[in-house]
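Hi,

Apologies if this is the wrong queue. I'm a grad student, and the batch job for Bleomycin hydrolase from Atta cephalotes produced an output file that my downstream script rejects. I'm not sure whether the problem is my script or the file. Here is the sequence I used:
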Amino acid sequence: MVVCPLTPEILDQLRAKFYADSRNVLAQNVCTKTNPIEACASRKILEETHHVFTHKIETEGKPVTNQKNSGRCWLFAILNVMRTSFMKQHNLDEFEFSQAYLFFWDKVERCNYFLHNIVNTAKRGEAVEGRLVNFLLTDPTCDGGQWDMIVNLITRHGVVPKTCFPESYSCESSVRMNSLLKSKLREYAKALRDMIDNGASDDELKTRINEQMMVIYRIIGICLGVPSEKITWEYYDKSKNYNCVGPITPLEFYENCVKPYYNVNDKVCLVTDPRPGNPYGKLYTVDCLGNVVSGKTTRYNNQPVELLMKLCAESIKDNEPVWFGCDVNKRLIDKHGIHDINTYNFELMFGTDIHLGLSKADRLLYGDSMMVHAMAFTAVSIDREGKIKKFRIENSWGEDHGQKGYQVVTTEWFANFVFEAVVDKKYVPADVMAVFNQEPIVLPAWDPMGTLAH
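Support response: The file is valid. Your script probably expects a header line. Output copied below for reference.
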């Protein structure tokens, strides 16, 4: 057993060595008075990075969206992607789909999914103290999500314009509502497991879940509002002409007004997981990960990052933005909206590098990186030799971040910190599409590839 306590002698050596280097004193003077990460920002990168691109989609959505104090980036990203073609077809200057609408249905469906997970894991013999159930109970309902969860929500519940279901307090700041739901779900989890221990039948369990969901629905409806069964959307187009759609159900609105221009079932999610134990060309899923009972399961088609980059560029050149997931906070100069592996010179300030001391695979293995945020690619730059140089990002943090809500990401950053991208299947090679026909390899619930974008 290795034992290396910090004795007074060792502490004296550490202190003496620290102050023996005058650069440490200078760095200390700087970092004790300002943000230590921002203090490492590279002036050279700021001067050389420009928000100008060789290929850009015709119409970027307006206004810039803002998820505020919630983890709804995955919903904002898909609705930002969907609205570009929708706005063009309906001759609109500005438009937003209702993020609150999908958020409502995700909360309802996700709580029901959690209760079913509790029953299923109990029937599998998983102990409440075991790692799996403990993991599920840690966060019974969060705001984050994955691509296949989006497909579940839209194909089951449709979409509506934001004017038909506007934001609420708990949409923009969800932590308090979530605390109510989490506490109730844990209470209900115990009740269901107790019933199973006492030999309850499946019909009795179904009845109890339905009763529990009446309470859960009530809490969510009080906090978020309850969407109407039918909507009527009135609007003026660019030519100042009055238009009216409806009365129509949200699902009919998606099927009739949105799906012809953006069909979520035509899109596929490709991931890039370079860990040696997860080979490329294989299909993966994550145990207990989802949001809709009997809905689409979360599936990951694992491919090299170079393919994801190539297909993202092809989609943008064809005027279609791309939903993608990444580790957003690594090497980001937020004020200027720049993602670049050279944005910060940690070596100069601290005498050691940060983030890049591990490979992408090892960052996943050791918990230093994972997909935590979803955004949309809307432009790409390709040089004369055909090499992809950078992408433009539409984020959902409002106009105060980046260049009025937009960011730029280099291909080097993409290779290190992008983990998944969603493109139309028409761009995907046949052999890659064939991977979706495989029986998926099941990763444990706590695997980093099961992390949700928020």
